[in-house]
Amino acid sequence: MLVKAPQEVVWWAWTRAERITQWFAPAATIDPRPGGAFELFFNPADRSRDCTAGCTFTAVEPMTRLAFTWKGPDLFAAVMNHPDRLTAVTVTMEPVEGGTRVTVVHAGWGEGDGWAEARRWHAAAWRQVLDSLKGALESGRGDLCCAPDEDQNQATVE
After folding, report:
1. Which terminal Cβ of the chain has fewer Cβ within 10 Å, N or C?
2. 44 phi and psi, to 5 degrees?
């Protein structure tokens, strides 16, 4: 996705808690170094639910590339949120004419129906996340991702 913002602005949006909470999740712990925390809390009132607690950066190449482990929402906890089954996300930021091209690659999916459903859900969620990043950096209007559905107490994407 093309974001009409300088590469360093996009970088800081991903690597500073006070910035990522403007467009991704309402609370975060971010320590952008290999082994550092990449923890997003989609329900800050209950930080044990719908979060990436325990996820860490696996690679940090300043201004160009981030990689981190990933947990899905509670809806997929039985499938993908065990320490030996975490997926991996890589975000690249490339300066281009008119801004920065941001690419998200989510890998490490398992086999079976549960994994297929999680993968479909995440494909839609990552589109929403990138749209929110774009909105926050271009117009100051981020849309926090994956807010819990209060009726069902599970993550939803609208």
Report:
1. C
2. -60, -20
Query: In what order do the strands lie in the sheet containing 65-70?
Result: 2-3, 99-107, 87-96, 65-70, 57-61
Say how many Å lie between the first and final Cα of the chain, rounded.
19
Joined tokens for residue 149? 């559905």
* CATH number at 2-150: 3.30.530.20
Contacts 24+ apart (CB under 8 A), 122-128: 122/72, 124/157, 125/157, 128/157
pLDDT for res 143:
57
**Distance, CA of 62 to CA of 26 (rounded, Å):** 24
| Its pTM surpasses 0.85 | yes
Q: Where are the domains of the chain?
A: 2-150
- The one-letter amino acid code at 2 reads L
Contact 133, 53 (CB under 8 A): no
Q: Say if residue 158's pLDDT is above 80.
A: no
Q: How far is CA 51 from CA 75, 96, 143, 150, 158, in A?
A: 11, 32, 17, 16, 18
